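Ticket #4471: structure output looks truncated?

Reporter: J.K.
Steps to reproduce: submitted the chain below (86 residues) through the standard prediction queue, then opened the result file.
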Amino acid sequence: MKVRSPTPLRSYTAQQAVVTAEGDTVGAVLADLDTHYRGIRFRMVDEQGRIRPHMKVFVNEEPVRNLAAPVSPSDEVTIIQALSGG
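Returned output as attached by the reporter:
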């Protein structure tokens, strides 16, 4: 399936905005991404296995906060990273 990566994480994906990954849940997709782009999952998932608060994950434009949320090969996953500053 297609996975859209936010600009701040593209250093992990060789500057690619869209990459592919496999899995039947959001968590499995993020784990598969990490096998191809080592270290990217840690930027999205915390030590307790939850999506980090500053990360937003969408499956077909629907927000998802649960790594157990199901996905299918025809779905599109979009990852957005909130930016902060002062």
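Triage note (M.O.): checked the attachment and the full token line is present. The first strand starts at residue 2 and ends at 4.
Status: closed, working as intended.
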